[in-house]
Amino acid sequence: MLVIRAKNYEELSRKAAKYIANQVELKPNSVLGLATGSTPVGTYKELIRYCQEEGLSFRKIRTVNLDEYYGLRPDHEQSYRHFMDHNLFDHIDILKENTHVPDGLTQDPCAFGEAYDEMISVLGGIDLQLLGIGSNGHIAFNEPNQHFVAPTHLVKLSENTLEDNARFFDSIDEVPPQAITMGMRSIMRARRILILASGVNKAEAVKGMLEGEIDPMLPASILQLHPDVVLIADNEALSLCALE
Hints:
With about 240 residues, the chain is an alpha/beta fold. The protein has one domain (about 1-235): 3-Layer(aba) Sandwich (Rossmann fold), CATH 3.40.50. It has 7 helices and 10 strands. The chain has helices at about 10-25, 40-55, 80-85, 110-120, 160-165, 185-190, 205-210; strands at about 1-5, 30-35, 60-65, 65-70, 100, 130, 155, 180, 190-195, 230-235. The longest helix has 18 residues, at about 10-25.
């Protein structure tokens, strides 16, 4: 895993956006796997700038998102479809029909998961997958578990994740307790993975991902097995790591 250090969140966001912009320039019809949460917001702002000010075009890009809260409508202000529209899609020249976010209202999560994974396969697989890392080491909403879950699936969110995400809601009681999440199979089949980490609250998880054993109780550790992973992290997120 290649580790790129950023001095702060702003530099992290610029470096990450440049990495993604290079992918778009080199392969204008790329399939991008996209993430939500607070970490990629700065990256998306910089990608918007690339599009609006420097002519970077997303016209031929296809996207697949990692996850969606189960039970939220796409137009709910805390849904990840709304997040993506508000923070990226509405401000670039991407075709909305080429953007895919899991269906949080599906009545059959198992069948939906199979269909979502098949859709990714039909698109040709993910060229570049953007990830964040949870304070408990989750990637997407793949929570600490006794085993790695391969397919897109319905997951019960951990107390740690509910507490972390409560800041986006009026109270923790409003955070949906379940989510539809891409599983490890589609993530690990991505040709390239870019993972971002910012803040001291991610330091333990980052240290475990880089230096610990591969363990489903720290889901991000599976990335040690992928041949092309870049971690961009700020000084706080790397504060516990013994890097040269």
